Amino acid sequence: MYHLTYTQVSDKGVGVGLMQTADWQNFQRRGMIIPPHNKDCALFEEKIDSKYYCFHRPSGVDLGGNYIWLASSHDLFHWGDHQCILQTRKGSWDSARVGAGASPIKTTKGWLEIYHGADEHHRYALGAVLLDLKDPSKIIARSVQPLLEPTEPYELQGFFGNVVFTNGHIINGDEIIMYYGASDQVICRATFSIKAILSSLIDSAKPIFMLQQFFKELNFFKSHPLSMRMLLITNLIYGMVNPIIELFIGAYIMRNSSDISLVVIFQLAVYTGIPLTFMINGFLLNRVPISRLYSLGMILSGVSMTAMMSLGELSTVGVFVAGLIMGLSYGFFWANRDFLALNTTKDGNRNYYYGIETFLYTITGIGIPLLAGGFIAATDKNNWFAGNVNVAYYIITGCVFLLSIFASILVHRGQFQNPLKAPFCF
Fold it and tell me: 42, 99, 236, 275: which one has the fewest Cβ atoms less than 10 Å from its Cβ?
């Protein structure tokens, strides 16, 4: 049995009718299946999950627009689960109205529908949309440019000029033999390659898909508690500081002194300051908000680098003081970071938090040293700043200070709680 949809027109309105035939000689009209005002109905060639599906195009005068809708039915006569799936696009070739063409074509990539669209000047063209095989309400890709548009004289002039409009096709392997009306006056034929259409759709969909994924991830990120989000963003910003601190202070000392022991003194001071700060931090947590201690750790990293850069001549005492300040920075940062991470996450989102943080730290751990090192090397090679490479270090230090201050301000937007008071020493 073959099922055909057509437009029923009367003084009472325009709706969708259904007729059936077994031999293409005798037809039985089954009446109106979608009431006015509706047209452009196209049945899917097979059931999906035991249900019939169709496209249709309701038309509203005041609200909505001329969009393509999807509906399902168990018997072809009673249709429900109506969903608007394809709307017009402002400034595009299909900016005024869209409507389905012939039945969707089943491909390995999805349901391929050739549809018509018109702009504000009533110029009709044909495009394609690719839908998910199991859930045709999901759009995979859509034509950016028309597949067929009026260019020939018989398409430009006629009863209603500037129109190409299809309602039927034959599939022959990879070939679509498409029959279409031109200017509402003549019937024409065109051929297309299914593979070529799919390739163009998928290529055009890649940037859109990436954008959709980005916003999907962004919305998922926004669904988490404010404190967790603020902590992640803070750590991302400060994550751009850490690689510079760890790599470039040592490089700065080696560039400005032939005494390698100064690097050892700096590292010794750092690792002296860390456990000392852990003790101080534990004492202060009973009196000072944890967000302030966390921000202090970030700001001290900029202070340490500034102290190092301000030394007219590198000395043991100066390098040791700068290293001690850096140790205080590390101590306040790391002592509070793990508690904040555990306290602002739960079992359901902790893996997400650490996964995002690790990913971002990995990216910055590779990218920031490359950028900073490239800037220093370019300064040396191109004789920037009158050949004074230290100026590049000063600029990097300034960036570190600004990022540290920004991260320190941002962390105060979170609603962080100090740990419960407990014995300080065990």
Answer: 275
At 256 the pLDDT is 86
Which residues does 249 contact at the CB level (< 8 Å), separation at least 6? 266, 304, 305, 308, 322, 326
- What's the pLDDT tens digit per position in 123-167? 999 999 999 999 999 999 999 899 999 999 999 999 999 999 999
- Distances in whole angstroms, Cα of residue 132 to Cα of each of 27, 40, 303: 33, 21, 56
Q: Looking at residues 239-260, what average pLDDT do you find?
A: 83
Helix (H, G, I), strand (E, B) or coil at 122: coil
**Mean pLDDT across the chain:** 91
Contact 125, 133 (CB under 8 A): no
Comparing CA positions, the residue from 111, 395, 41 lying closest to residue 252 is 395
First to last CA, the chain: 84
Neighbours of 416 (CB within 10 A): 20
Those residues whose C-beta lies under 8 Å from the C-beta of residue 391, and which sit 6 or more positions away, are 379, 384, 385
Give the separation between CA 294 and CA 407, rounded to whole angstroms: 10
Average pLDDT (411-423) is 84
If residue 73 lies in a helix (H) or strand (E), which one and from where to where? strand 68-73
Q: What is the Cα 185 distance to its own chain's centre?
A: 45
Compute the distance between CA of residue 11 and CA of residue 305 in angstroms, rounded to an integer.
83
What is d(CA 186, CA 155) in angstroms, rounded to the nearest whole number? 8
DSSP 147-193: SB---SHHHHSSTT-S-EEEEEEEEETTEEEEEEEETTTEEEEEEEE
CB atoms within 10 A of CB 7: 13
Q: In this structure, are residues 101 and 123 in contact, taking their beta carbons and an 8 Å threshold?
A: no
Structure tokens at 150: 């009026």
Is 224 in a helix, a strand, or coil?
Answer: coil
| Contact call for residues 67 and 87 (beta carbons, < 8 A) | yes
The whole-number pLDDT of residue 206 equals 64
Sign of the four-CA dihedral 234, 240, 246, 249:
negative
pTM, to two decimals: 0.57
